[in-house]
Amino acid sequence: MRSGGSNADERLLFTVAYRQHAATVSGYLRSQGLADPEAVTQDVFLALFPRLPEISGGADGLRALLFSIAHARVVDHHRRRSTAPSVSEYDPESDLRTTHSAEDIALASHSHVQVLLQSLPDDYREVLALRIIADLSLDGTAQIMGKSTGAVKQLQRRALAALRTQLIMNAESTP
User: Fold this and answer.
1) Which of 132, 101, 103, 138 is nearest to 116 (CA)?
2) Which of 3, 26, 31, 80 could be a cystine partner for 9, CB 3.0 to 4.6 Å?
């Protein structure tokens, strides 16, 4: 996956990488609770561009580097958020509109998924985001999380079991 140093090759590689991975990176960032995942996605790709000549390992190496950068941005976001004042969320009860817009419906669906994910422990949420949303291998996920491959496999199994339990409990509690 080395670009060979040519600016044209690097631009082409960057364009292909962006087209193939921008939506997945954005989804990963969104699943981690970032307020503006699109802006952070742009930051991830801006950080990727100067590192293109260093990439090795083919498409897997590129994807691992992308999600390593994205993971670092998530960690930075959570560190900043822990020291920043809290921001109040949109209150639909005070909204005077009488019909729900498509955006409201999409946000409600997104909100339900966010609630499910946020109720999971951080490690569970992280492993699910990296393995399912980012579609990283066990080895790539282990490298990013700083854990062994076996630990990641076990963590993913437990995370899916916890998510399954929550979904069953939610289904039983709704009429």
Assistant:
1) 132
2) 3
